[in-house]
Amino acid sequence: MATLAPRIPRPHSAIHRCVSRASLAAIAFAGLPAAPAFAETRSFVVSWFTQAVYSQDGDCPGGVEPNIEVRFKGILADMGKSPKEIDELMSEFDGGGGPGPVHEMLRNRGSEEGKRVFVGDNPTAVPDPKIHTVASKIGPGFNLDGKDSADSFEDPDTHETGVDNQYFRALGCFSSHRAMPPVQPTMWFYAWDATRDRTKGWVISIDGKDLSKDGEVTVSFGRALETPIRTPKGTPQRDQTFRADPTPRFQNIFKGHIKDGEVTIDPAPFHIVTGGGYLPLEMKLTQARLRLKPKPDGAIEGMLGGYQPWLGIYYMYAGGGYGYESMVGLNLPGIYYALRRLADAEPDPKTGQNMSISTAYRFEAIPAILVRNTGQK
Amino acid sequence: MNMMLVTASTQGSLRRTSLTRLIRNYSVLLCGMLAICDAPALAAAEPASTGGQAVIRRLTPGQYANSVKDIFGEGILLGGRFEPDVRVSGLLAVGTSRVSVTATGFEQYYTTARAVADQVTDKAHRATLISCEPADEKAADDVCAREFLQHTGRLLFRRPLTQGELETQVSVARDAGASLKDFYAGLRVSLTNLLVSPMFLFRQETPAIDPAHPGQANLDAFSMATRLSFLMWDTAPDEALLRAAENGGLNTEKGLARQVNRLLNSPRLEAGVRALFTDMLGFDEFTTLTKDTVIFPKFTNVLSAQAQEQTLRTIIDLLLTERGDYRDIFTTRKTFLTPSLGILYAVPVVLDRPINTPERWVAVKYPEGDPRTGLLTHASFVALHSHPGRSSPTLRGKALREIFLCQKVPQPPGNVSFEDVQDTANPVHRTVRARVNAHLTNPVCAGCHKITDPIGLALENFDSAGGFRTAENGVDIDTSGELTGVKFVGAAGLGQTMHDSAAATSCFVSRAFSYATGLAPALTQANYLKFAEGRFAAKGYRLPDFLKEIAMSKAFYQADAPQTATTSETKADATLSTTEMPARVAAQTNE
Fold it and tell me: Looking at chain B, which residue has its C-alpha nearest residue A240?
């Protein structure tokens, strides 16, 4: 199909269209870079980013993971505490992260060489608690391996089958990771919000001859030198200028295609750096896929998927410490074992253990002005 | 009880007797103390004109801050806020002679004065700000107190203290220092007194009678110095200017020119020009400007401040750095932006360093033919003169006429329905132009809107926050406009029309002179203003040259001759302590 709107949204104003054209040559701004060779460019900055989930009633056959108090009582029972002892211990539980005897006991419930150890740092110091996992056939993402197997999903939007998103399957029964789009899972909503002020902008550009038509494009997805400025509502501002980080490893360049207004890419490695904190410091995906779909308001909604080292994902949770158990309701050893068990790619040559897990992320990106090759160090 | 401290008028609304009473009460005029100036032999071609009343002008908050900073240094922190100024004849500078100080206002001045005095006399500052040391810190020391108060009082009052004023404050320092067993605590009380004195808080101009021309007068040398300094630097006269006033250096054309050139050639001229345009452009209205952030999420408090700075930087660059033509403020393609302003205008703002510094400024030049030319397209104009949730061609047209053409647009009648123009979701009238046209079917409204809307509609490419747009509710915006018979399209066309408008330059001449003198334009000055317009044009509409014309003119220093107070009254009042003044004022007010 070779029609225009909505396709890749054009900025509303003439001036924006003028500066959005990659040349920017018409405007004599100090320090402006030389004109790239593309006839048309649209640039965006990621405004939110979240794990791609699709939670439905009944998709956890074992049930949604119990709330914190119930789970902690179960852990204490597994540790051999009597009901009376459990009641006494839990009477001190205040919903926070401690300190106190019960917190100490729960935090350091692992055992290694006769010593109590924190289970976040030592998840194998306890047996696999076998957390509940998602058994639904509907899940967002991409068919990464080209197969439609028993553990594959069907994407709810594209209806692509064979979708690989074991990360959703592994954690999708924690209430903090459950949501039905457009709602974002609480855990990721919080993590992104708490991190974005120290995360340099994630900028995307789509370059091509005519973005209103089907055809070949170049898609870049990388880090900027600037952090997004927020609106009074706390969301990122549209039309902010970002300089692309000139460091090559912070930029991903993909060969892409526009078809029916949507942009996809050929599989390729993906790497980006976050501000750390509640997100993994780095996100590395292999066989990454990207889908960009224009929205009427000029933004784009996107889906990013690929295989991601599961240990990196686990460290993101372990980095949250015991608080992720006592306040968010996660089960750190349970996450470790689930990720390891459901990992579905890149086996270790020696052990055969898959070291990566299929993932998918949803995001929105809003119009931005991207400047490249500024000569910045 | 009305706690009015001082009130004055520039328009003759205050009776001459009132002025005399003020002078008497505050020892403003000590004619015998100061040398009567000879009229400087100034520009030969200047036509005869007479000045207005000598005025008493309250320092603006900026002038107060600048004065304290200059006298005591950057390290002295002010805090709090003073009472707002009042805009009269388009300028706060004129309004400063129409304001009083309420009880609450006096409390604010006192609190600030006390804070300044505390800092000046504390251990961290006294060694650098107080030139002498007492023989005993735990006792009064008249010699050191007199040295400090004489020096500092002269800078604060912008003239030497009278003997009575000085001895009063030395006495206060002595009593307080002895009582508190702390020299610096005593000095603190005296300094506080000086800082809350009307002699500091108000610029009190003193006409010196010209015996050859009864009824006319020129300002005395210290009043000249004060006018000059506040016009050029927006602060109190510095040591060199005060010395020139003392030694007669301002009484000759050569001496005056030396000081005028010194002030003009200083980097501090920028502060004066900023103050002039901040006042003229009505930037005080930014303190109450709000935008609906649901509709305009790009407009933040940070951006509100940066919008003003964008315009001031543009003006300074054009008129001072480039020594450009004043008229080009309406057409210039060069401006300065921050990342936040770049977001508002949706244009790239590329910083020159990798760290995230949104407040950094970048010089920007729009391409030929770009619709964003001139100050009228800045957020400081289009956003300031819009409603919180929608643009307003009426407010913009009114502002343009009042600010740049010195015309008065009447307020709307009280019984007008604005339903048509407020209905931005009207399915039939989808653009502002259509809604305004519907509104104009009411002939009562049409009269005024005809003089505002054809101007403002040309700026409809700019929404209420200053963002650029080409369509409203899906309908292309028609930006055709008209001003005094000249038709144009868009902001660029309006800017060019203003650039070419003789009324616009005439207005600026009048406004700048009013700003300088604190007087609303008077018929008696019409000849001079006409003359000044010619000089402005002859000098290529260059602001520094024009400021020099004003500063070297006779008109700038002329004032009506005062009715003098008797010597005994003056002498008695000269020794009033500051603490006595409110009571005297109250008594006067109740008369």
Answer: B343
Record: contact B348-A233, CB cut-off 8 A: no
Q: What is the pTM of this model?
A: 0.80
Radius of gyration, CA atoms only, chain A: 23
Q: ipTM of this model?
A: 0.74
**Quick one: CA dihedral A10, A291, A270, A320, positive or negative?**
positive
| Residues of A whose CB is below 8 A from B349 | 29, 241
B552 in any annotated domain: no
Do B282 and B377 share a domain, yes or no?
yes
Enter the tokens of residue B325: 């033509």
Which of A14, A227, A374 is the closest to B470 by Cβ? A14
Range of the domain at B136: 56-204
Task: Give the number of beta-carbon pairs within 8 Å between A and B.
Answer: 111
Which residues from chain A sit within 8 angstroms of residue B293, using beta carbons?
A: 231-233
Residue B221 inside a domain? The answer is no
Sign of the CA dihedral B136, B140, B145, B146?
A: negative
Residues B196 and B74 in one domain: yes
Sign of the C-alpha dihedral, residues B282, B287, B293, B299?
Answer: positive
**pLDDT tens, position by position, for chain B (591 residues)?**
333 333 333 333 333 334 334 333 333 332 223 333 333 434 457 888 877 777 899 999 999 999 999 999 999 999 888 988 999 999 999 999 988 899 999 999 999 999 999 999 999 999 999 999 999 999 999 999 999 999 999 999 999 999 999 999 999 999 999 999 999 999 999 999 999 999 999 999 888 877 667 767 889 999 999 999 999 999 999 999 999 999 999 999 999 999 999 999 999 999 999 999 999 999 999 999 999 988 999 998 889 999 999 999 999 999 999 999 999 999 999 999 998 999 999 999 887 765 555 568 999 999 998 888 999 999 999 999 999 999 999 999 999 999 999 998 887 777 666 777 777 777 777 788 888 777 667 776 777 778 888 999 999 999 999 999 998 888 899 999 999 899 999 999 999 999 999 999 999 999 999 999 999 988 778 889 999 999 999 999 999 999 999 999 999 998 877 655 444 433 333 333 333 333 333 333 332
**Distance between CA B313 and CA B305 in Å, rounded?**
12
Asked if A243 reaches chain B (Cβ–Cβ under 8 Å), the answer is yes
Distances (CA, A) of B93 to A225, B57, B85: 45, 8, 9
Q: Write the CA distances from A323 to A51, A112, A186, A319, B222, integer angstroms.
A: 20, 22, 15, 10, 71
State the Cα–Cα distance between residues A370 and B491, nearest whole angstrom: 27
